[in-house]
Amino acid sequence: MYPTSQLSLHAVTKRFGExxxxxxxxxxxxxxxRVGIIGDNGSGKSTLLRLIGGALSPDAGELxxxxxxxxGALDQVLELASDATVHDAIDACSTELRGLExxxxxxxxxxxxxxGAALDDALAEYAAITERFEAxxxxxxxxxxxxxxxxxxxxxxxxxxxxxTLSGGERSRVALAATxxxxxxxxxxxxxxxxxxxxxxxWLVDRLRVHDGTVVVVTHDRAFLQAxxxxxxEVDAASVARYGDGYPGYLIAKANERERHRLAYETWKAxxxxxxxLVAANAGRLAxxxxxxxxxxxxTGAFRPRGRDHGAMGRIRNAKARMxxxxxxxxxxxxKPLSFAPTAFTGSVDAQxxxxxxxxxxxxxxxxxxxDDLVLAPGGRLxxxxxxxxxKTSLLRVITGELRADxxxxxxxxxxxxxxxxxxxxxxxxxxxxxxxAGIREDRETAEARLMSLxxxxxxxxxxxxxxxxYGQRRRLELAxxxxxxxxxxxxxxxxxxxxxxxVEDLEGALERFTGAVVLVSHDRLLRERFGGQRLRxxxxx
Length: 542
What we know:
The protein contains 16 helices and 19 strands.
């Protein structure tokens, strides 16, 4: 480990146009730590990663990223020239190491023509460069690259093959292999576990665990966070919060935050009620006191007025002042546990029979997928797996009726809730609250109360036009609409995509409590690992 390594951010701010993505961020990192960056899509995670890697500069504040052993950054998409090859991509992902290697060879070739003091200086420079190259284990880089490519399933690719001819998954895995094989001290990885099968995923986790340096990873993969990270940075509302003890520690901390919020709200509500009671009680006491009182020692008909500074009046003034302060700084009610709207199963396949199936598939063929016989009743759970392109999403669309099956019959309840893999919400000038109110067919006041009870949005988000929402916020809006309507059958296509891990945990809990049937398509390893229902693997022709 390099003793001079350092990463710190002090009051770092980054804007894009009018939008403040990160606002006065304070962070520090110890050398050798494994950090996971989480948050909704569009929250600023990739921006934070690119600031640390030097691809972006802060608009304000100070950022120090000092790593003598080099920095390697993996973006979600590697942009190259149209005529680039696989070999060019590998070089682009190991620029520092390749540059150090060229510098070492150039210094070595320059020694031949030097003598005396000039030679001594050149030898010292050459020794320093060689030491840096050896510290990165540069000589072992070719073997590491071959091993990494093989482990990620792309070792057989021709290095002279055009980069543009590779699939998206192949490009991601080549770039990941080259970045890790370059062995920089600081690894910055953006969604590295995407497009990996289970064996490749495990190889990456094991490789990063033994990496002799620091790892910072942006990921939605909860299993990856649980297996690797020691620290969590959560990006939300332009700020970054730090949580220790890895992903389990993050979940405990979030639960504690929710409990503190609940207690703060209960305290605020009780204090407001207490002062309202004080006003009412003292107002009643004040009303019972005569407006005029007999003056002591005076004859009949001699009165003195009741004093304005009477004790009851003072208590009323104090209570009203406290109420004003409480109402000026209200505590937002805590969100209820996420749950789906209840349903009475009135639209089932055969509503006359209790527990009748909600979904029946018989001899269904679509794309490369086939389902011979499937029955799902209330409370049923089905996880659909299979390689990309086999027809998982198409099968869900057949169930909803928006796509016709190539063969077979589908009988399903009409009360279907469908969360698509790609957001179906289109940008518009309508505000988030207006879009939600229209979706649940309620007035603004009712819609606002229901939406706020879900805990998916901050009150400041309600007036944001749908067109200005991040992709993650649009996904939350879709989820809000889904849980607010009564459904008997839920079709969920990659439901954890673009959602923060904390929200995914809440969604899992809501699905466990849902009394209808659920059909799930997901690559989420933790979700699949915890899944307790039927499993259907679609195996089309290779």
